[in-house]
Amino acid sequence: MSEHIDISISNGVQIIRMNRADKKNALNRPMYLAMADALRDGDKNDDVRCHLFLGLPGIFTSGNDIMDFMLAVQGREGLGDNVLKFLRAIITVEKPMLAGVDGMAIGVGSTMLLHCDMVLASPNARFKTPFLDLGLLPEAASTLIAPKVMGYKRAFALLAMGEELNAEQGCEAGLASTITGADNLEEEAIAAAERVASRPPGAMALTRRLMRGNRDEIVARMEEESSYFAERLMTREAQDAFLAFMSRRK
Ligand code: COA
């Protein structure tokens, strides 16, 4: 449970909403756990036919809470159990997973989209993964999936160079499926999710499983990245970058 993740189920769609406006929907550990649990519980619940991630108007998520990175450094914990649970959950989820993106989708906010079956983006959506700016490396098996989805060079620009993509570029790169009207992202995302929910669930599960490729390979890459991530967190490069972010506003 997290006060910053709202869960609701209606018409076969489980909406998992990130709701931490004052921190631009930065994801802290309880939020990761709540989202991982929602995917697992939803997969077991017959009332749920698909999952839909939403943020708030103007912000999908600013990615991992940088304060949590600093706590992880102090505790020498690496990404931590809750983050790993979430990353495993988005790779192994059995039911279709959709997202509706308005505003920034930063870090894991972008890499999680690689695991979604359908992503609707508003014209204001922006995709950015500043992992290297923080002295870190990409996660969520994005080093495996992004080059396949968008080609090596575009994946390099996104993941290694931290280039920001707008809604159109995000669609071209395969992070999003379609761009909605400016004012009706949620309406359209829910309607799309309801269409997915209306498909025969057994046939859907089989189709997804075959289309998503070798799950063990994807989990293994995520774990490999995570172990490097734990090492990178302990570097001066990373810690200086966290401090720079946390002190920049003062
Ligand atoms: N972790 C922790 N706190 C964050 C955060 C994050 N990822 N993103 C934003 N916040 C906090 C800010 O510290 C600020 O807190 P404060 O009000 O207590 O000072 C608050 O959210 C608002 O952020 P602010 O930077 O003032 O808003 P903005 O509109 O100027 O910029 C972002 C929004 C998302 C572009 C900017 O906050 C940002 O770049 N965040 C970091 C993104 C990032 O590097 N994520 C990690 C990816 S691996």
In a nutshell, what does this entry contain?
The protein is an alpha/beta fold and 250 residues long. Helices cover 48% and strands 16% of the residues.
Description:
The chain is of the alpha/beta class and 250 residues long. Helix content is 48%, strand content 16%. It has one domain: 2-enoyl-CoA Hydratase, Chain A, domain 1. A hairpin with a 2-residue loop joins strand 1 (5-10) and strand 2 (13-18). The two termini are 32 Å apart. The model has no long low-confidence stretch (mean pLDDT 97). The protein binds coenzyme A. Coenzyme A binds at residues 23-24, 26, 62-67, 104, 106-107, 130-131, 134, 249.
Topology:
Blueprint lengths: L4 E6 L2 E6 L10 H16 L5 E5 L4 E3 L4 H10 L5 H12 L4 E5 L2 E3 L1 H4 L6 E4 L4 E3 L13 H9 L1 H9 L4 E2 H6 L5 E2 L5 H13 L3 H11 L3 H19 L2 H12 L3
Parallel strand pairs: 2-3, 3-5, 4-6, 5-7, 6-8, 7-10
Antiparallel strand pairs: 1-2, 8-9
Helix pairs in contact: 1-3, 2-11, 3-10, 5-6, 5-10
Bound molecules: coenzyme A.
The site of coenzyme A has 16 residues, from α2 and β6.
User: Given this structure, which CATH class is correct?
Assistant: Alpha Beta
- Average pLDDT works out at 97
Q: Structural class, judged by helices and strands?
A: alpha/beta
Number of helices: 11
Give the CA-CA distance, first to last residue.
Answer: 32 Å
List keywords for this structure.
single chain; alpha/beta; 2-enoyl-CoA Hydratase, Chain A, domain 1; 4-stranded mixed β-sheet; binds coenzyme A
